[in-house]
């Protein structure tokens, strides 16, 4: 590999939006561009201005944003007709975007040029050369994406290379080899990339798709073969199986291959950048994603946890905080004493009779998980159990009676009402409330009942609600597991309830949620010498 820095090219705003279920507004794109810039990405591909009004609007608005290090790039294709290159709508739209970098793609697989475009090999080469030349003469940096290059090279090496020659003759600044179908193997990527690197003096890039699950391997292999320009999306989204994930490639490049990047990257911000991207896309993150997934440094088996507590490198290939992640120990029916001890240390809980309490905790957790509870996704409920057995916590309230009523009116409209009694320090509050559904009504009634005692709860919000049937063969008598996520400001926590009655399971999870928030407030106040007062 040439001793030069790697250029990072993010196409989340363009290729990423071609993924199923991905839809970004102009403002979404601008917000994400700012974060990519702050992280240290060199080039951000903003979209195809010749294809839709939204991308045109993005390029117009991004001009007013002062990016610190990233360049904005516009994307498009070669001209449609040889006879009208300088009047081609697509090429003119690229120039109208007023950016310093433009990427255009051209056909480098004979199958596409002959059967897709229906033109001769010579005309395809001319189309590439003249399109690149038109843009280059207008003072922009031109990146040529050689579409389907590896498939094209396999069919006809001479044709694929002649198309690259045409781009070079037109004045292209960078040649990007695209595994557009995502079907190539690493050994083929290496051999072909190496030959191309040796043939041309300008930088060679790699653009991999993940249809064979090899996008990251193919990208790293291309870099080993001499590629200096890496394209991908920050979280791997994209058409079909997605593009290569830069969140996987970047740590491997920097931490494993020890390559230099063109800018200093804020690697500890990687996990939060990916999380932000998923949030903007309104998508669930991949919890098992390498490096940055929630489960990437999570340990469940007791033997593993015992080893990690002695030396984390036994089961962790890097320190999690390097990429902004954190080590997690899961407590489940597979847990041993090491899991409980780790969790207690994490929560700053000191057991007076550690062996006895640890044993009780293990037994309780295993018994509850046998009944259907699952604490991997309900840390707050688990923390309450640990603190209660250690003597640090007792519930701030108890729901002693509850009733939820659903009535149907005209036009099949449904109405939900909940009544309940709450016991706080010997005082009973009896109240009622309605809601959009039975769980919402129960949540509103519980919040209303507690507000007299604990006004601090008024800003707690229920943000996610999941139900899973545990033993489906039991039909309507099956147990259900309810998981609730609650937030207060930037904080979030998850609680759990299990029952054959979905309302009862929801009540358990809601009660844990409010109790957890009160326990947090109590803990902070005790540190400052105050006590949690019930209004």
Break the fold down into its secondary structure elements and pairings.
Blueprint: E1 7-10, H1 26-39, E2 43-47, H2 53-62, E3 71-77, H3 89-96, E4 101-107, H4 110-117, H5 121-136, E5 141-147, H6 149-155, H7 157-170, E6 174-179, H8 186-199, E7 204-208, H9 215-224, E8 229-232, H10 246-256, H11 270-281, E9 298-299, H12 302-310, E10 328-329, H13 337-346, H14 354-370, H15 379-389, E11 398-408, E12 414-424, E13 427-435, H16 438-451, E14 461-469, E15 480-488, E16 491-499, H17 502-527
Parallel strand pairs: 1-2, 1-8, 2-3, 3-4, 4-5, 5-6, 6-7, 7-8, 9-10
Antiparallel strand pairs: 11-12, 12-13, 14-15, 15-16
Helix pairs in contact: 1-2, 1-11, 5-7, 6-7, 8-9, 12-13, 14-15, 15-17, 16-17
Structure explained in plain terms:
The protein has 535 residues and is α/β, with parallel strands linked by helices. It is built from 17 helices and 16 strands. It has an eight-stranded parallel beta barrel, surrounded by nine helices. It has a three-stranded antiparallel beta sheet with strand order 11-12-13, covered by helices on one side. A hairpin with a 2-residue loop joins β12 and β13. α12 crosses α13. The chain is elongated. The mean pLDDT is 89.
